[in-house]
């Protein structure tokens, strides 16, 4: 069953077409990679999916409902979470506070109960703290919960961002270059963590990634973009041997002049 359906999606910026008549489905509880050369339109697709960009044409169905015209916070409430290529942590807040901030979409206490510290508000705050700690434990950095985010090693900061995304209680998790800046061992740990998220939490994952080793190791399906168009889709083996993919990454050999 498809958790996400992208239908004939087109996004233009003036005379530039960033995404061109793109269609694909994401199956529930799968791991899919979206790859392509720089400028292929991958991040633009993520921005359309999460409501940061409004597509000119086509539609996006999440859980069977169109989200094309929804604002980002509404899409998050429906169960889609995202991390970014460049870290977007609150640097001077603690690790735990960063993750708790991710749960704002699941909080219901109003301003009056917050000011008066009513029992319902205190109970909700306790629930948010407990859930955030569980997310940090899941990604393996609960012992660092009271440290200031900017003082963590880069790899651990990536885990904080991932824990914050999990705290929104998503059904679909979009990861924008999660392996960027990680060393080989950290990338292997990332692969294991993504598989753990899929298997233990039942969360569907879509990632943008340039590291082909990581992509080939973790992906059940790979979608390849070039100049905003889908040029290939399939398993790692199918994509690796697709001539259009080889040409997109390596360039097409010039024909000899006759």
Present the secondary structure layout.
Layout lengths: L1 E12 L2 E12 L3 E5 L6 H8 L7 E6 L2 E2 L5 H7 L1 E4 L11 H7 L9 H6 L2 H21 L14 H14 L4 E5 L7 H18 L2 E5 L3 H7 L2 E6 L2 E6 L1 H5 L2 H8 L8
Parallel strand pairs: 3-8, 3-9, 6-7, 7-8
Antiparallel strand pairs: 1-2, 1-4, 4-5, 9-10
Summarize the structure in words.
The chain is 39% helix and 24% strand. By secondary structure, the chain is an alpha/beta fold. The chain has two domains: 1-79 and 170-258, 3-Layer(aba) Sandwich (Rossmann fold), CATH 3.40.50.300; 89-167, no CATH class. The protein has a six-stranded mixed β-sheet with strand order 6-7-8-3-9-10, sandwiched between helices. α5 (119-139) packs across α6. The longest helix is centred in the middle third of the chain and has 21 residues, at 119-139.
Distance between the termini: 52 Å
Question: CATH first level of the largest domain: which class?
Answer: Alpha Beta
Overall form: globular
Count of discrete structural domains: 2
Strands, total number: 10
What summary fits the major beta sheet? 6 strands, mixed
CATH homologous superfamily identity of the largest domain: P-loop containing nucleotide triphosphate hydrolases
List the helices and strands in order. EEEHEEHEHHHHEHEHEEHH
Evaluate the radius of gyration: 20 Å
Q: In percent, how helical is the residue content? A: 25-40%
> Based on helices, strands and strand pairing, what is the structural class?
alpha/beta
């Amino acid at each position: 069953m498809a958790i996400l359906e992208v239908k004939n999606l087109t996004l233009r910026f003036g005379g530039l077409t960033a995404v061109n008549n793109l269609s694909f489905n994401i199956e529930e509880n799968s791991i899919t990679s979206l790859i392509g050369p720089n400028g292929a339109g991958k991040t633009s697709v993520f921005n359309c999916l999460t409501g940061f960009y409004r597509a000119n044409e086509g539609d996006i169905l999440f859980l069977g409902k169109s989200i094309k015209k929804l604002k980002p916070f509404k899409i998050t409430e429906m169960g889609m979470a995202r991390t970014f290529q460049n870290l977007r942590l609150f640097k001077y807040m603690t690790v735990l506070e960063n993750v708790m901030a991710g749960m704002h979409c699941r909080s219901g206490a109003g301003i009056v109960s917050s000011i008066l510290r009513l029992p319902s508000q205190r109970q909700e705050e306790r629930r948010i703290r407990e859930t955030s700690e569980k997310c940090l434990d899941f990604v393996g950095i609960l012992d660092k919960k009271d440290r200031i985010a900017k003082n963590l090693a880069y790899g651990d900061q990536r885990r904080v961002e991932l824990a914050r995304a999990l705290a929104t209680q998503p059904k679909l998790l979009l990861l924008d270059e999660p392996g960027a800046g990680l060393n080989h061992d950290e990338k292997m740990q990332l692969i294991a963590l993504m598989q753990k998220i899929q298997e233990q939490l039942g969360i569907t994952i879509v990632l943008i990634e340039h590291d082909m080793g990581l992509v080939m190791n973790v992906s059940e399906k790979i979608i390849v973009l070039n100049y905003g168009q889908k040029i290939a889709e399939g398993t790692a083996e199918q994509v690796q041997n697709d001539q259009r993919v080889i040409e997109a990454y390596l360039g097409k050999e010039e024909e000899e002049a006759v």
